[in-house]
Amino acid sequence: MSAIGNFLWFILGGVFMGLAWWFAGLLAFLSIVGIPWGKACFVIGQFTFFPFGREALSRKELNGKDDIGTGGLGIVGNVLWFLFLGVWLAIGHVISALACFITIIGIPFGIQHLKLAGIALAPIGKTIVSKEVAEAARRARAEATVRRGG
Question: How many C-beta atoms surround the C-beta of residue 105 within 10 A?
Fold first, then answer.
């Protein structure tokens, strides 16, 4: 089912926002200091091309520990990202979502655009995984919480 969703998503407009992410990545690479953000743009751009069956998950939620992107430096990185590129990508996704909501068949696509708008606001510290991996990580974290006693 996700293959059909991804195909329809791509040909009905997902390609444009994926290209917007890649363009943002090129802009980030041009600044040299933005190379880490640019790399993230290309990963999320690929996710934007084919989002069904995958999701963005915090690396802390996946690994159970902080890293450079999920700690204090990640917050600073997300603020800089938001100010320079994130807000524009989020606006693009919201406009695309509104266009999708016009038709009944477009509602799932509009919801996906809103999820991507949230990612566009703060992508640092996130990774793209399959739905199964995300569910397994959440289940493992819940079991560990129960073992610790709450």
Answer: 9
81 within 8 A of 89, measured Cβ to Cβ: no
Domain count, the chain: 1
The C-alpha atoms of residue 51 and residue 47 are separated, in whole angstroms, by 5
Q: Which domain holds residue 13?
A: 2-148
Q: Which of 128, 97, 119, 129 is nearest to 24 (CA)?
A: 119
Q: How many CA atoms lie within 13 A of 89 on its CB side?
A: 30
Q: Is 42 helix (H, G, I), strand (E, B) or coil?
A: helix
pLDDT value at residue 144 = 84
Beta strands in 1-150 (DSSP E): 54-58, 126-130
Distance of CA 60 to the CA centre of its chain: 15
Q: Supply the pTM of this predicted model.
A: 0.88
DSSP single-letter state for residue 58: E
Helix (H, G, I), strand (E, B) or coil at 75: helix
pLDDT at 19: 96
